[in-house]
Amino acid sequence: MNISIITVGKLKEKYLKQGIDEYLKRMSAYAKVEIIEVADEKAPEVLSASEMLQVKEKEGERILAKLHPDTYVIALAIEGKQKSSEELADTLDKLATYGKSKIAFVIGGSLGLSQQVLQRSDEKLSFSKMTFPHQLMRLVLVEQIYRAFRINRGEPYHK
Q1: For residues 99 and 158, is the Cβ–Cβ distance under 8 A?
Q2: In whole angstroms, how far apart are CA 60 and each of 66, 112, 141, 156?
């Protein structure tokens, strides 16, 4: 299985990088996992609704350019479906069983994802109704993917 995590912006926080690197190392036994960063759109602090839309669309174009036509896309979005760790594990297991070997998780920038990215996605996943920094979501996501592999293999870790 090949998993891509496509995310907007560079990760600057060293502690988050260390955590992500640890889970990527652990997951190398289960799947090829890569993080693809696309540039965030530079914008002033205060934006009009149309400017926000433009920012999301430009970031969305960069995300869409990284997606292959045969990739199963899971967009992280507040309005998405919330799943337990077991349900996420089941989703990944079923995708693998039915020949979906390329999976991309997409994390938007600070303004979220464009309509085009949401329409391209096969599934929308929400970790909570709360808003989290998109940099922190990378760490949470890689940990949950790792947990899913451990659950599917019946290996100790998940409690």
Answers
A1: no
A2: 10, 9, 20, 38
Counting the structural domains of the chain, the total is: 1
What pLDDT digit, counting tens, does each position of 19-41 carry?
999 999 999 999 999 999 999 99
Please check if 14 is assigned to a binding site.
no
**Does pLDDT of 158 surpass 80?**
no
Q: Binding residue per annotation — 132?
A: yes
Nearest to 73 by CA among 142, 6, 157, 25: 6
71 is in an annotated binding site: no
Alpha carbon of 1 to those of 69, 81, 93, 96, 156: distances in Å? 16, 23, 10, 7, 21
Is there a domain that residue 91 lies in?
Answer: yes
Q: Is residue 146 part of a domain?
A: yes
Give the containing element (helix H, strand E) for 16. helix 14-27
What is the domain-level CATH number for residue 84? 3.40.1280.10
- Span 96-119, pLDDT tens digits: 998 888 999 999 998 999 999 999
Q: What's the distance, CA 34 to chain centroid?
A: 11
Q: How far apart are CA 109 and CA 7, in angstroms?
A: 7
158 domain residue, yes or no: no
